[in-house]
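pinned: reference chain
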Amino acid sequence: MSKRKLKLAVISDIHLGTYGCQAKAVNKYLKSIDPEILVLNGDIIDIWQFSKHYWPQNHMKVVQRIFKMLSNGTKIYYLTGNHDEMLRKFTDFNLGNLEVLNKLVLDLDGKKAWFFHGDVFDISMKHSKWLAKLGGIGYDLLIILNSIANFISEKVLGRGRLSFSKKVKQGFKSAIKFIDDFEETAVQVATEKRYDYVVCGHIHQPCLKTFPTSYGSITYLNSGDWVENLTALEYNLGEWKLHHHIVMPDSEEELLEQKEEELANNTMLNMDELLKNIVK
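pinned: its structure tokens
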């Protein structure tokens, strides 16, 4: 499978180690791109809810894929979030092409981009961390129930997918206000610092929109998540795009994987034949 060349890719809120994590989709996405820079913008591993009893092979494959990209020359920045805040003790850790940071500023074609997870703007994180953790557990349970409901909706009733959490967010004015306040605060702080782009995660709301400022404009971007939205931010040739990953039915996924394996095996066989002919 040919990979898409990118200057930069940003993903966040994968939540490896939880039942809601769509690890198979994450691996497929990472396998499809070849970025010069990959920014992992927080909550990649969910240390809050991590359990040694739940770490599926698909979750391990995501970690292996990231390290493979690292060995292939991709520069990777791991920016810590609230669910993987234990890694903040390793801030400024540098190992070859891998750096662990709390925030990052990059120059993108002469414009400044400010990257950070976003939990710093979350009042519940500052004053009621136990409540935020309880909410995380509740969200994970909601995702499990959502998965069961989607199985029944798709396989039994022949209908489309449902999203309980989106319904909850849309149904509560306080949730909508929280998202609006988060975006407004991020833009306000970035404007004061004279950045051109502010790139966050945390709230699981993929977004790409531009706000006017006193010195021009600023673009707010949110990479969304890999629990429900399956989204990433991509920057190439001076342009940002919000990428929505499309999940194929299992049968199509398996067929594609089989074809990729056959192609890889055929390449190896051809190399063996070539070597034999050279030796002759």
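why pinned: The two ends are 33 Å apart (CA to CA). The CA atoms of residues 10 and 39 lie 5 Å apart.
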